Amino acid sequence: MFKKFSLEDISAQNQVKASVQRKIRQSIADEYPGLEPLLDDILPKKAPLIVTKCQNHLNLVVVNNVPLFFNIRDGPYMPTLRLLHQYPDIMKKFQVDRGAIKFVLSGANIMCPGLTSPGGTLDEEVLEETPVAIMAEGKQHALAIGYTKLSAKDIKTINKGIGVDNMHYLNDGLWKMERLE
Amino acid sequence: MAEKPQAVRVLYCGVCGLPAEYCEFGPDFEKCKPWLRRHAPDLYPDLLLKEENETDADKAARQLQSVAISGSGDGAGGDASSAPSGSASASKQDEVKRLPGGKIKKKEKQEVVIEKIVRNKRKCVTVVKGLELFGIKLSDASKKLGKKFATGASVVKGPTEKEQIDVQGDIAYDIVEFITETWPAVPETAIFFIEDGRKVAAA
Fold this sequence. Notes:
With 181 residues, chain A is α+β, with helices and mostly antiparallel strands. Helix content of chain A is 26%, strand content 29%.
């Protein structure tokens, strides 16, 4: 969904009030318990928190001009890949096989066979409609952030079609937007 | 403090900006190679070593090989196999092209097409086409839509004398559920979105 994404897609930038800030912080902490001790580093209480509204009901959480999280409508907050690379263990991980990398990096959704094949791994506990980090066979870092369409068990049993929606991947519009102005 | 996980410093390629290990899948691996050789020699050991030790003879040999490969590839593609496959793909393309333009074909298939049209930067209209194919009265439908989403909804003569419903505001997200709930005759699989000129199934 960030395949084409540029400054033009931003419709409004607001510094949000403290109560909203608290809410965002809380929901991020709930969602990524591993991130809690770091939250003060990532989202400093002093620095103004800016929420950038973009088209298609997309919100970016921006601190010091760096986009850190995004969400759609009132959906879960997902970290940007740059942030995930810094703290790789905050999300549940799926791994795709090597053959899938090229497609994922051009924006394709993740198909079940790529996750169930010998090169891929699944985190059994993941339910449907949760954000996951997409890792790749033989690589150290995440290459995409996905939103599961099926639970891990279903992916295993059905093994067909789209398993995870690709939300954000390396070299897409959001990736290239290292800093916002 | 002790249990605080440290931030990982990821090595990003100076050329393409990807993490260095993904350069091989990046937009231009060839351009990244010199950078990689300098900054991350251990990531692609076999490849870079080979490159460094590569003598002119090797290069020549490789060139020859590639020529041979491409030559043989041409040979294989040039004969019988290429002609039928080419024509098949062409006809397929024609079909695809005809669909958006010719509304006649759509009539045969029962489907609801939902399109979001952006009017200016932050206002848009959602257009619903094809509800009448399921025996739904459009004037009724527009009233229901307007009531549900609390916006203006009207029956408009669309292109080629077909009637469609224009609903103010972006309701593409919620409309699928509403349609399937109010008119059980419409299956979710028959609802399509138009995104970037492409038809995308809703379900």
